[in-house]
Design brief:
homodimer, about 290 residues, alpha/beta, 5-stranded parallel sheet
Chain lengths: ~290, ~290
């Protein structure tokens, strides 16, 4: 009976779309080991179907992105912020290349967050994030984000524990303000397994054209894998909210990761349903003036 | 004999690549009416060949862009700044969509310059430009630029004439500093005819999904066409320098414009010849550590 119930729930989730399926409920303890990293819960079932589906999605994404941008020229303040987080090699950069690559670069604002500079450290941790937010009509993409301040900062004790504890609420308030101001916040945790990370790091070492992506510090971070997973669990539990939910993306398969992030973005853009603005000028009159010129 | 000479010169130019062919000599009076807007001086000869050639160029652009970015992680400060200028509908946005669209969004910094805000006007006209420059390893793209301050500013007398006159030298000094600091500056004037602009503006009026790109003020600007062409001529004459040359791109054919700008970018990137950095860590040692983890 319980199994039947769970199957029904799962069917309902599928119907509700990928968002419902991958969304972290929030407020509940998150056990990341119970989330498959190599599953393909909805959508295409294999690599070639996945790549084809992602490619087909490209033009819909580009079309909706153009509409979002067009709407902003008539005062629509809505915009989208895609936050990508995950362990080294989880594919934050690859997702940007293969999914955001479909979009018009003019409407995208990509920002990669590294260890804060001296100037950034002198400010509140959200200061540098505020500088990088998408403007109305834009699609903003964060490759890492303010979550580093409760992830690596927690694991490596870069701030006093009570300050770290305060930050979760600060992040929630910050994201509530973004949402109220018309920003659709989509936060994706690209979830890979410990073994898959090893394979990818080894591949980086095997290929001279990938060496630049590798740093010995990646191995030091990897030694802290359980602590990082724990830090992610806490962030997902405390900061997956109705106005800025977290999604766990099974990311051992790059093609599935790309499809799933693209699909999430598409579902959100479709819901926003941005419209080309109606002209606020006399079209026929302008045509006449042009023909007379 | 003169004709033979001119044919020989033209052949030599072709061999030297698109750069030599389209580059404005600088320091000489520029007569824009002598530059064809619908010619296809080098490269593919028709639309379908042009589109195919541009598409093939895409992966080379993406490869070199990745190398440029990779090199920056090892201290290479080189970067590229592509400046796009042209009358309304000349295709600044289209070029970004169709050419820069091949590149990895993570390594691109696109900035569109509109009429300066109150804050921007309170600063020197180059201030907002400095905020928007590409970082080492990046490809920066300006949709309009500091040249607006000697173009629309000159035509509409937005500043005293003696200040406008001073700006050409200020721009040259600014661009010299950029070049000395490792920035390859590529400035493209997308050159269309008066008739082609009319066709494109009419098309924007005909299509509801293009209305947002139209503004009645475009017609007012168009009425000042000769003054704008003159302002462009002066800017090209005074600011096409060895360290930051101007190129006139025949832009009546969108497919040729895309191919030509892509090709210019490609020629410059090939000359920069950025290399993946050599590892500054012990590859075998790291592999061993990873396998033991």
């Amino acid at each position: 009976m319980a199994e039947k119930d769970s199957r029904r729930k799962s069917r309902e989730k599928r119907k509700a779309g990928l968002r419902e399926l991958l969304r972290v409920p929030g407020g509940e303890r998150v056990d990341l080991s119970s989330y498959d990293t190599d599953s393909v819960p909805l959508g295409p079932g294999d690599k070639s179907a996945g790549k084809a589906a992602t490619s087909r999605m490209g033009e819909h994404l580009a079309d909706l992105q153009e509409r979002l941008f067009a709407a902003s020229t008539a005062g629509d303040r809505r915009r989208v912020l895609l936050v990508l987080q995950g362990m080294d090699t989880s594919g934050k950069g690859g997702t940007i290349k293969h999914v955001i690559g479909f979009c018009n670069p003019s409407g995208c604002r990509v920002r990669a967050f590294q260890a804060p500079t001296e100037q950034e450290r002198a400010h509140h941790f959200l200061w540098r994030v505020e500088q990088s937010l998408p403007r109305p009509g834009e699609l903003g993409i964060f490759d890492r984000s303010h979550y580093e301040d409760v992830l690596v900062a927690r694991v490596r004790e870069l701030a006093p524990r009570e300050e770290i504890e305060r930050r979760y609420d600060e992040i929630n308030r910050f994201e509530k303000t973004l949402a109220d101001d018309g920003t659709t916040v989509i936060k994706c945790f690209l979830h890979i397994s410990y073994e898959e990370q090893r394979r990818r790091l080894l591949k980086r070492l095997d290929r001279p054209d990938k060496h630049w992506k590798f740093s010995p510090s990646d191995i030091d971070d990897r030694a802290l894998w359980p602590a990082f997973q724990e830090a992610y669990s806490i962030a997902l539990e405390r900061c997956s909210t109705s106005y800025a939910p977290w999604y766990v993306i099974p990311s051992d398969h790059k093609w599935y990761r790309n499809w799933a992030v693209g699909r999430l973005l598409l579902e959100h853009l479709r819901e926003l349903d941005p419209q080309y603005p109606k002209p606020d000028f006399d079209v026929a009159g302008c045509r006449g003036r042009l023909l007379a010129q």
